[in-house]
Amino acid sequence: MSDKSGGRQGGGSSEKNGPNEAARDAARDAGLDKDQAKELHRQITGQGLTDKEVRELANEIKNGQ
């Protein structure tokens, strides 16, 4: 089976410990509360977003967008 995402599997994050750590870091850095952090995780699950995209989404959630 071939990987159509360009060869790298595992959630799209370049963070050492994967997308979950990237999401936690982005939520913390954006100052998200617990519910907002859950929303961030819900929105990024399975999307294969880059760390930058996760951080941008975290900021959008923080700003109510």
List the helices and strands and how they pair.
Blueprint: H1 19-30, H2 34-44, H3 51-62
End-to-end CA span? 38 Å
Could you list the spans in which at least 5 consecutive residues all have pLDDT below 50? Answer: 1-15
Taken as a percent bin, the fraction of beta residues is under 5%
Order of helices and strands: HHH
Mass-distribution shape: globular
Q: What class, by secondary structure content?
A: mainly alpha
Could you estimate the helical fraction of the residues in percent? 40-55%
Determine the number of helices (DSSP H or I, runs of at least 4 residues): 3
How many strands in all? 0
Q: Radius of gyration from the CA trace?
A: 12 Å
Task: Give the averaged pLDDT, no decimals.
Answer: 81
Summarize the biggest pleated sheet: none
Comma- or semicolon-separated keywords:
single chain; 65 residues; mainly alpha; 3 helices; 0% strand; globular
Summarize the structure.
By secondary structure, the protein is mostly helical. The chain is built from three helices and no strands.
Task: Explain what this protein looks like in three dimensions.
The chain is mainly α and 65 residues long. The protein has a domain at 19-62. It is built from 3 helices and no strands. It has helices at 19-30, 34-44, 51-62. The longest helix has 12 residues, at 19-30. The radius of gyration is 12 Å and the shape is globular. 25% of the residues are buried. Residues 22-42 have a biased composition (Basic and acidic residues).
